Amino acid sequence: MPQITVIEHLLYHQKESPMATGRFTRLLSEMILSGKIINQEVNKAGLVEILGLTGETNIQGEKVRKLDEFANQVLVHRLQQAGVLCALASEENADLILVPEDCPRGDYIIIFDPLDGSSNIDANVSIGTIFSIFRRISTGEEPVTLNDVLQKGARQVAAGYIIYGSSTMLVYTTGNGVHGFTLDPSVGEFLLSHPDIKIPERGKIYSVNEGYWHYWDQATRNAVDYFKNPDNDSKRVYRSRYIGSLVADFHRNLLYGGIFLYPADTKDPACSHGKLRLMCEANPLAMIVEQAGGMATDGINRILDLQPKELHERVPLVIGSKLDVLQVEKFMRAGA
Ligand code: AHM
Ligand code: MG
To answer: 229 CA to middle of ligand 2, Å?
Structure first.
């Protein structure tokens, strides 16, 4: 396979993708550079004890920041100077971030989780940056409002993630298939390694935190039970795999086929609609999985059709191979 970088790939497919404009290319370039910067810091995570604890000044006289704060600062700083955004929203910031009037601005809005799964950092587990891109609804003359941002996921113009794992990968879609690029550290470029990713129609993996079993409703328990003994057919076996890092669990299931569930539960009133966020986690992964031939629902409804009411709204997430997601839907409808 010839070595093709992300930007070359985007430009090459310019004719097919309305997103391959110079402006979008600029935005993606900033995302790529941010990802490389975050990657460098993530690779040093185990050295924090040696170089200094978070909040302290390290041996080089630099203030040591928590990695998720660091990732957030890098993304906000780099993306807002791309000149193509009017607003940004991050899982780490309560409110919308408007691009200052004295900065060049554009029509795009980006919503991101800067470092998903960051509670796993100390155990050297894969973590990731997830992003979702929209075009504002109002015209560029008017000030951006939350209404410009609270759009259904179906209106996303692009979505992707960077996974910091055994290798670092960028996976993204502009609505024209899903493509994966692996960072070659020797040249510092993301090179096309997984063109046109398709998720198997039925998977062999189910991923859910079964420690919450007692906090689920009966329909959810029935759905998860199914994967332990599918169709009462002892020959078909699902494997249980749960990392507890959404990007890593999703990425594995995307490549191998499988289903990830984070249902609603009663363990925490804040999670009565699940733990994951609609706008910065569920929507972008839902766009990716659909582009790869899979499905994403809240158990019953398509994620991309949900109208967000607030920026940090949470949603139950059932995502992965189509037949597995449909199977869960049957149990959820029966129990509704
Ligand atoms: P975070 O955005 O604070 O990192 O939380 C989201 C993470 C996901 O990566 C993962 O799927 C989930 O939390 C795991 O939660 P739990 O430990 O409840 O299973
Ligand atoms: Mg997260």
So the answer is: 31
Tell me how far the alpha carbon of residue 117 lies from the centroid of ligand 2, in angstroms.
6
Establish whether 91 is an annotated binding residue.
yes
Look at residues 308, 18, 290 and name the one whose alpha carbon lies nearest to residue 146: 308
H helix intervals, 232-292: 246-256, 283-291
The H or E element that residue 68 is part of is helix 67-80
**CA–CA gap between residue 142 and residue 145 (Å, rounded):** 9
In the structure, which protein residues have their CB atom closer than 6 angstroms to any atom of ligand 1? 91, 113, 116-119, 209, 244-246, 262, 275
89 and 149 in contact (C-beta within 8 Å)?
yes
Type and span of the H or E element at 116: strand 108-116
**Could you say which DSSP state residue 73 is in?**
H
Secondary structure class of 248 (helix, strand, coil): helix
Mean pLDDT by groups of 10 residues along the chain of 336 residues: 85 66 85 95 73 55 71 94 93 92 89 90 90 88 87 97 95 95 94 97 97 96 95 84 97 98 89 90 98 98 97 96 98 88
* pTM check: above 0.90: yes
Three-state SS at 169: strand
* Pairwise CA distance, residues 209 & 223, whole Å: 13
* Res 49: pLDDT: 57
Structure token pair of residue 174: 């502009």
Helix (H) or strand (E) holding 29: helix 22-43
ipTM: 0.95
Nearest to 329, CA basis, from 289, 307, 304, 302: 302
